[in-house]
Design a protein that fits this description.
single chain; 33% helix; five-stranded mixed beta sheet; 2 domains; alpha+beta; Wheat Germ Agglutinin (Isolectin 2), domain 1
C-alpha cells in the first residue's frame, strides 16, 4: 500500500490527520515492506514508548491492539517502536532521528506531507534486534477486590494488611 492509502486508513480510525499519525503510518509502512503482516491475533507485537497519535496508526494498519495484548505501552515519552513477528521470528526497532532540517519552519500540513513522502530510513534509526518478544496475552481469573468489590485480574491484586485489593484501593490504603 502507498503511504496515502495507509494514511487514509489511519485517519478513519484516529479521527483527524496530524504529524504524529504520519509518523505512525511511516513506521507501519516500513514494517509491512519488511514482510511483517497485519495481525489478526498476536502474530505481530508492537512495543511503543509513547502514547501519542502515532500509536493509533499502528493499531489501524497493523492490527496491534491493547485488547489483544499485542500492543504494549512503555511510558518513556519517546517516538520508539519495536516490532516482533512471531511467524518469522524477526525483530526490528525504529527510533525517530534528531531533525536536521533547515531553518525554514514547516507548517503542520507541510510536515505531514514531508513525512508521508519520506523514506522510513530518512526519519528513523532502524535496528534489527534479537527475537525476544513478550509472552502471549494471558487470560486470567477476575476476583473481587476485598475493599471496593470491583472485579480485578488476579495477577493485579495487591496484599495489604492481610487483604487482597485492587491497585487503586492499595494506593488509598497506603496514604
Amino acid at each position: 500500500m502507498e503511504a496515502k492509502e495507509l494514511m487514509e486508513k489511519a485517519v478513519r480510525f484516529h479521527g483527524h490527520i496530524c504529524p504524529g499519525l504520519a509518523i505512525g503510518v511511516l513506521a507501519a509502512k516500513y514494517v509491512l515492506e519488511q514482510g511483517y503482516d497485519y495481525s489478526p491475533n498476536e502474530e505481530l507485537v508492537a512495543i511503543v514508548e509513547n502514547d501519542n497519535c502515532s500509536v493509533d496508526a499502528l493499531q489501524a494498519i497493523l492490527g496491534t491492539t491493547f485488547g489483544k495484548g499485542n500492543l504494549i505501552h512503555q511510558d518513556y515519552g519517546k517516538n520508539n517502536f519495536t516490532f516482533y513477528d512471531r511467524r518469522t521470528e524477526k525483530g526490528v526497532k525504529l527510533s525517530i532521528k534528531i531533525s536536521k532540517s533547515s531553518d525554514k519552519k514547516l507548517t503542520r500540513d507541510e510536515k505531514i506531507q514531508f513525512l508521508l513522502n519520506s523514506k522510513p530510513e530518512g526519519i528513523f534509526n532502524i535496528y534489527e534486534i534479537d527475537f525476544t518478544p513478550p509472552g502471549l496475552a494471558q487470560i486470567e481469573e477476575s476476583v473481587p477486590c476485598e475493599i471496593c468489590g470491583e472485579l480485578t485480574m488476579n495477577s493485579r491484586l495487591m496484599t495489604y494488611n492481610n487483604s487482597e485489593m485492587c491497585i487503586p484501593c492499595y494506593k488509598k490504603m497506603r496514604k
